[in-house]
What does this fold into?
Amino acid sequence: MRKITLFFIDIALLYTSLVAMLAMRYDETFSEQLQLHLIPFGIIFVLWLVVFYIANLYDEHTFRNTSYFYSNLLKAITVASVISISFFYLIPIFGITPKTNLFIFIVLFAVLDTLGRSLFNHIAGKGFKRITLIVGDTPSAHETVKFIKENPQLGYELAGIVKSDDIQGLKEAIRGTRINTIIISPEGYKMPELIDMFYQALTKRITFYDLATFYERLTGKVPLGSIDQVWFLQNLTEDNKRGYEVAKRIGDIVFGIVFGTVSALLYPFIALAIVLTSKGPVFYTQVRQGHLGKPFKIIKFRTMIQNAEEGTGAVWASSRDGRVTPFGRFLRRTRLDELPQFWTVVAGHISLVGPRAERPEFHEMLKKEVPFYEERYLIKPGISGWAQINYPYGASVADAAEKLKYDLYYIKNRSIALDIGIILKTIRTALSQAGN
It folds into this structure.
């Protein structure tokens, strides 16, 4: 709800800034100028909102008055301003090329939005708190506690953790504290006395969540320690995803061809740079695990030294991998090494968005070490994905387990809207890394 509220606040401030700018600049011709500016500025307002989304300015985790937030806001306004200037001067079809008007508008909106968001963040952090009690002393419960404490702007205040078998302690906590929310770990549902007590507490207007649902809602990932096979049967049914899968496949073909064709213009320059900076082939192929565990070959621009694994065998790549060439590091940061994979998308082996396709050598190890690891192959892997934009390079079993939490969230909640969001944030990641 707060995301939607903030979205409409931004829209209101964009149009307020436009009207204020025109009122300052024009008097007798205000109505005429408003009609003239409304459509072109309406178009760039859409672009501003997209930029703000890519910059994570509608992510509840950023609703705090920190240096990170203000830095993100400044960058987003700067990028949106450059896009606005380019729009008016590169596409002069609206009969206006505003200079002073655009400058005044940008200044007005920057001031209003900074003040508005500062106030919004303050209210989000100091507003109504839902007193929350967690039932079940589990690792996932403690991880949830840590997340709540680190993100007070989400609106939850922790009353504590009570063990599932501490019935008396639970009764005292509910009776003595104004509890708004109770989070129940899986073992709690197996205790009839506990469930009966919660049923009696419904008259106190308490909201109940199972731990997996609450954790997922807050963090954007699924807690491995709080799910079982029943969770998959309840949440990963495919009947309601058929239309989405058809639309996604059509989108993969269309955008795969478009992006593949456009990106092919860069192939000669990338190939030349690879040849000039290191010995070895321009491309490399590698077997990966695909949909339902079927192997396929990916093709990328080579980013490592030739025969990088000749003496070591399969080794996890890391963010500071010594086998990566200097130019290869740039290709990886900007995701340009992935460009040839658009044709793998068209061929149907992978999608634009999905879990990362793992190497068979690591897959065999991880499915033994990480619970439910094979379930990530219920859908096609992707060039980018929810885990890839939310978690850095993984180079251990622990990293793989953490990324699996994001993969399961995506598999459960995948939709066209989520896919578009992931693609937009992948662009942000690529552009921001290119500047590092």
Notes: The chain has 17 helices and eight strands.
